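Task 17 of the worksheet. Students: predict the tertiary structure of the chain below and write it out as structure tokens. Keep your answer in the requested format; marks are given for formatting as well as content.
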Amino acid sequence: MLLDYTTLTVTLKEVAFKKEAALQAELERILQQNKADQPATPNSPVSKATHYYMVDLKPEQVEQILDILFELEASHVDEDGEATPTGSFYATLVDKWMALKYGG
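Model answer:
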């Protein structure tokens, strides 16, 4: 399954912050070695932000990432219990990793 550059780099930053060295190394490997081929489209700017990568993590590693992201999502709510913009951003990351986990 593929994930985009931004999802992977933000996830990597959060994993590194949690000092999960083995998982950090796996994400760095994916970013260095697993770039997916992209069809060339005319007049389309090419930047890292548009790159996708094949994610070949073990299910337990994906679960570990989801735990970190769920915790971040839950920690960003306002006084009414509603998600802040940052919480919504982390919820989007959770959705992407959940889709990867369940193949959707």
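Marker's comment: The first strand starts at residue 2 and ends at 4. The chain has a mean pLDDT of 91.
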